[in-house]
Amino acid sequence: LSLSLSRSNSLSHLLVSSQVPDVIGLQEPLHHQLNDLLADTTGQYAALGVGRDDGVAAGEYSAILYRTAALSAIRSGTFWLSDRPAVPASRAWGAACPRVCTWAELRHLQSGRHFYFFNTHLDHVSADARLRGADLILHKIVEISGWSAGGVAPPFLTGDFNETARDPAIKHILASPVGLRACGSDAGTFHGFAPRAGPRIDFVFAPATAQARCLYG
User: 32, 57 in Cβ contact below 8 A?
Assistant: First the structure.
């Protein structure tokens, strides 16, 4: 599930409680919103991630929530979409604000199988930052998961990419040797706080060989 908290916590809670996804990629939550959502879901989920402005709790998160009855977290981390990805609050390539990608290696408790989950929110101003950020994420997917080098734990990528499927960053992800495909509905996801949705700018990417049920909210 890829989910934005910019609409309201109550709507996000409704979607989470009705669908009960095993893993969720959140975009835009602040620290208190993340805590509120965790409290509203009565302890079913644990959260991974940090605030983008200080690497602790300041600013927006690109958090990962996972359902603890179904999954366990083996390891996780966050990197910044810049030429200094290990430096908190770093930005580059004309980005309007710091951008991050949070990742986790997760184990499915019933089957024992592992997979990797990456979640991000690309810049809304700089097309160059979106393209370079997407490229950095693809390199990190290979580096962390080992997928292109014969790794057996598949990677998934979710996020608000601030681009449509016709734009460079999305085309770059789909053409990458990592072998990801967009899954889920083609319905628009950009709403701008209006009743009707605009173009699709949120995506869930999965390996072609993976089976997953993808939702957007």
Answer: no
